[in-house]
C-alpha cells in the first residue's frame, strides 16, 4: 500500500481495511506520520504531536469502526495521555487525569490520535499559529483551526472541533472539509473546556459527509447513523430544502450557495422571518453571561498570561447581565416555538457556511455571521464542501435542520454532496 | 465573642460582622475549627480537612458578602488547592488545576473553605462514611451527604452539594437544613464531575432560607437575590401555593407536610395530572443514557477500583438506549408545555422533600421519589426545615416553582419559614 493509494481512500474504507486485516494501523500511521512531518512545519496544525506516541497508539488500534483512522483532537478537549493547554499559555504542560468521553469513544472505536490540534485561546478570539492549507497567507478559520487545517491538508482523516458561535462550521468551510454542529446534548461535552452551557457543542469533522456520519455515529453511540445504513452509496432522495439568504450582508458572496442550489434544482427561496436577525445579538448575550462564569477563574487568576484578544473578549463579557441573558433565552424560546415560520414547508434550509472564502491575514479567524443563530437555536447543521470561490479557496454550504433531526440532516447532506460531486463541485482536500 | 454567641448567629450576620470589622474571619474560623475537631471524628462529614489550610484561607477572607463564613465543598466539585476525589478510590489524591467557578465565586465573596465534604462515589449510589448528625444510626442522605451533615451539625454555615435525582434536597431535609435545586443553567456547573448534561445542577445549602438566598445570590451573580432585598425580615406576603400529594405512596409519611400546610392556612390541594407519574421513569432514562457517556472512562478504565453499588449503577446505565432517552426528553417537553395543568391556579407547589425522616442504616441514602420529577422538569425547588418527625429526626417540606422563577421560590420559602418558626416548627441544627 503506497501513500498515493491511501490518499484516495476514505476514512471508512481505511477503517474497514484495518479491521479486516488487509491493512495494518501501523502502515496507515506511518504514511500519515510522514505526511505530518513534511507538511506540518509550515501548516502548524498541531500543538502537540509525538510520532512515537502515535506509533504506540497504532499498535493497539486494529479493531472498531474507526480502526486505524488518523485522528486529531482540538486542544480544548481533555486527553489523559497528551497535554491539554486550551490554546493558552496559562496552561502550558497541563495534563488532565482522563480523556473526555468523546476522546474515549474515538479511541475505543480504534482511532489513532495523532496529536492535539491548535485552538484559539480558550476557543475564543486569539488565533493560534495555523495557516490555511490552501493559501498560507489566509486564516484557516477558528476556533477549531488546527483540526480543520489538518483535515484540509490530509494530515488526519477525522477530528474533533467545538462550536459556541461558529467555531466548527466556519473553519471546516474555509479548509474544504465536512463538519457538523450537532443538536445540544447528543454528543457529550464533558472534558471540553466550557464557554457556554447553552451553546457549546463538540463539532465532529471529516473529509466528506459519509466519513462524518461514521464519526458522528461513534460519538453519539448510534450505530444506525453509520453511512452504510444512513446513506448507502447510490441515489439518495432529496428532501424539501429551502434557500435561506439573509436580508442584507454587503460583504458576503452568495454565488457558491446559489451555484449549489441551482445544481440541486429543487431548492426554493425561503423568506426570512423578521425576528431572525435579532437572534444574533441574543446569542451574543447568552454567550457573554455564561462565559463570564465559565472563564471566571482564568480571568481573575491568569489575566497576565492571556492574550490581548482574550482580554478584549473578557471585557465584552463583563458587560453581560442576567437580564440580557434572560432576554436572549426568551428570544430563543420564542423562535423555537415559531420554527415553522423559519422553515416554511421545508424539512431543511440551505444557507452559507461563511460569508465567503477564508479572509487574508491571521489576526482574525473570520466572522460567524451564518452560524450563531443555529447555535443558539440548537439546530443541527452540516457544512458540505461546495467547490471553490473566486480566489480559489474552498467554500462550503450549510445544511440546517430542526433540533434533534441530526440523522436526517446527515442523510440529506450526503445526498447533496453526491449531486454536487456529480456536477464536479467539491473541495478536495489539499493533499501533497 | 464566644462559641455559644456565634452559635446563634446566621451566616449573613457573621459575614456582616466580619466585613465591618467587628469580628475577624480568624476568630470565626477558630471557633468552627474547634467544632470540627470535636464533632467530625464521629460525624465523618469531611473527606479533606486541614486546619492550617483553613487558617491560611481565613487570613485573606475579610471582605465580601460571605466574609469569614465557614464553608464546605462537596468532593465532586473541583478545587485548585484541595484534593478532589469525586468520592472514589479511583481518584485518590487527584488535584485539579483550578477551582470550579462556583468555588471561585464563594472564595471571592469571602467564604472560608473548611474542606471537601463526603460524596457518594461519583455522586451516585455507594455511600461515604458520614452519619446523620441527629442519629448516628441513620443515613445523612446522599449524594451530598457531607455538606448536609456538616451543616446539620453546625460544622459549616454554608456549603455546596449537587443534584441529578434528589442529591441536594433529600440530604438537606434529613439533616434539618435548607437547600435549593436551582433551575438549570442559572448556576454554572463547570468543574462538577458530570453525570447528566440535562439534569445536573449545583445545590447550594445553608442553615436557613435567608442564608440560602445570600449564597444563591453569590453563585448566580445576582445581588438582587440577597436576603436584605429579596426577603427583608418582617411579614412577607404568601403567594398562592398548592399542596401536591402523590397519588399513592405506601411508605411515605405526609403528616409533617400536612402540619406545615395547616399552619400556612392558604395552601389548597392540587390535583396531580395523570402524566406526572411517568416523569419518574422518564428521568431515569434520561439519566441512564447521559451518565453512560459521562462515566464511560471510569467504567472502562477504573472498574476494578469502583464500589459494588457503582457497578450496579453502571450496569443499569448500560440498559439505557437513545430511543428511551428521546422518549424521556419528549415526555419532559410535553410536561413543560402543560405545566398549567400541574400548577393549576398556584404560583407554587408544596410537596414532600423526602418520603419521611432519614432511614436507619448506612447502606443506602434514601429514595429520591419526590425530587426526580422536578429535576427532570428543571423546576426550581427549595427544602424548608419543617420540624421533626415521629422518630425525632428532622423533616423538610419542598417548595417548587416554575422553571426560571428561582427568586420567587426563595422569597416564598422565606415567608413559609417565618410562619413555621412563628408556630414553633423548625429543625434547628444539632449544635453541641
Can you walk through the features of this model?
2 copies of one chain form a homodimer. The first copy, chain A, is α/β, with parallel strands linked by helices. Chain A has a domain at 3-230: Amidase signature (AS) domain (Amidase signature (AS) enzymes), CATH 3.90.1300. Chain A has 17 helices and 11 strands. Chain A has helices at residues 3-7, 11-19, 25-43, 51-58, 101-108, 145-152, 169-174, 209-219, 227-230, 255-264, 279-294, 296-301, 308-318, 322-337, 339-343, 372-377, 406-422; strands spanning 46-48, 70-74, 112-117, 158-163, 178-181, 201-206, 241-243, 268-269, 348-352, 381-388, 394-400. Chain A has an 11-stranded mixed sheet with strand order 1-3-2-4-6-5-10-11-9-7-8, with helices on both faces. In chain A, strand 2, helix 5 and strand 3 form a beta-alpha-beta unit. In chain A, helix 3 runs antiparallel to helix 4 (51-58), helix 8 runs antiparallel to helix 17 (406-422) and helix 11 (279-294) packs across helix 14. Chain A is globular. The interface between A and B is medium-sized, with 33 and 33 residues.
Helical amount of chain A: 25-40%
Determine and state the CATH class of the domain at 3-230 in chain A.
Answer: Alpha Beta
- Seen as an oligomer or otherwise, the chain set is homodimer
Largest interface, with counts of residues having CB < 8 Å to the other chain, equals: A-B, 33 and 33 residues
Number of helical stretches of at least 4 residues of chain A: 17
The biggest sheet of chain A amounts to: 11 strands, mixed
Strand order of the largest sheet of chain A: 1-3-2-4-6-5-10-11-9-7-8
Query: How far is the N terminus from the C terminus of chain A?
Result: 17 Å
Low-confidence stretches of chain A: none
Could you say which overall geometry of chain A the principal axes of the C-alpha atoms support? globular
CATH topology category name of the domain at 3-230 in chain A: Amidase signature (AS) enzymes
Amino acid at each position: 500500500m503506497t501513500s498515493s493509494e491511501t490518499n484516495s481512500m476514505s476514512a471508512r474504507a481505511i477503517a474497514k481495511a484495518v479491521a479486516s486485516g488487509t491493512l495494518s494501523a501501523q502502515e496507515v500511521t506511518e504514511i500519515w506520520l510522514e505526511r505530518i512531518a513534511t507538511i506540518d512545519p509550515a501548516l502548524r496544525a498541531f500543538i502537540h504531536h509525538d510520532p512515537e506516541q502515535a506509533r504506540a497508539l497504532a499498535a493497539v488500534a486494529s479493531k472498531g469502526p474507526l480502526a486505524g483512522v488518523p485522528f486529531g483532537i482540538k486542544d480544548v478537549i481533555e486527553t489523559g495521555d497528551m497535554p491539554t493547554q486550551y490554546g493558552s499559555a496559562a496552561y502550558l504542560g497541563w495534563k488532565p487525569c482522563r480523556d473526555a468521553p468523546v476522546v474515549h469513544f474515538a479511541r475505543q472505536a480504534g482511532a489513532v490520535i495523532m496529536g492535539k490540534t491548535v485552538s484559539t485561546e480558550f476557543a475564543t478570539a486569539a488565533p493560534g499559529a495555523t495557516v490555511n492549507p490552501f493559501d498560507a497567507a489566509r486564516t484557516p478559520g477558528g476556533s477549531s483551526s488546527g483540526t480543520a487545517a489538518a483535515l484540509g491538508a490530509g494530515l488526519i482523516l477525522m477530528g474533533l472541533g467545538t462550536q459556541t458561535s461558529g467555531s466548527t462550521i466556519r473553519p471546516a468551510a474555509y479548509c474544504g472539509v465536512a463538519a457538523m454542529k450537532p443538536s445540544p446534548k447528543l454528543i457529550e461535552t464533558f472534558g471540553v473546556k466550557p464557554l457556554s452551557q447553552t451553546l457549546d457543542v463538540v463539532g465532529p469533522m471529516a473529509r466528506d459527509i459519509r466519513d462524518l456520519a461514521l464519526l458522528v455515529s461513534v460519538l453519539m453511540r448510534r450505530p444506525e447513523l453509520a453511512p452504510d445504513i444512513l446513506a448507502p452509496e447510490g441515489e439518495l432522495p432529496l428532501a424539501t430544502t429551502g434557500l435561506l439568504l439573509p436580508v442584507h450582508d454587503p460583504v458576503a458572496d452568495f454565488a457558491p450557495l446559489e451555484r449549489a442550489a441551482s445544481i440541486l434544482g429543487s431548492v426554493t427561496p425561503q423568506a426570512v422571518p423578521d425576528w431572525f436577525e435579532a437572534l444574533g445579538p441574543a446569542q451574543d448575550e447568552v454567550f457573554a453571561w455564561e462565559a463570564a462564569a465559565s472563564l471566571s477563574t482564568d480571568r481573575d487568576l491568569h489575566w497576565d498570561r492571556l492574550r490581548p484578544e482574550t482580554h478584549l473578549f473578557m471585557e465584552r463579557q463583563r458587560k453581560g447581565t442576567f437580564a440580557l441573558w434572560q432576554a436572549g433565552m426568551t428570544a430563543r424560546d420564542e423562535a423555537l416555538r415559531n420554527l415553522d415560520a423559519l422553515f416554511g414547508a421545508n424539512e431543511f434550509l440551505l444557507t452559507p457556511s461563511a460569508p465567503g472564502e477564508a479572509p487574508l491575514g491571521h489576526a482574525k479567524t473570520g466572522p460567524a455571521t451564518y452560524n450563531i443563530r443555529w447555535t443558539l437555536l440548537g439546530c443541527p447543521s452540516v457544512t458540505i464542501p461546495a467547490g471553490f470561490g473566486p480566489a480559489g479557496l474552498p467554500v462550503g454550504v450549510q445544511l440546517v435542520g430542526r433540533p434533534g433531526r441530526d440523522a436526517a440532516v446527515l442523510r440529506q447532506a450526503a445526498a447533496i454532496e453526491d449531486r454536487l460531486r456529480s456536477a464536479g463541485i467539491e473541495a478536495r482536500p489539499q493533499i501533497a
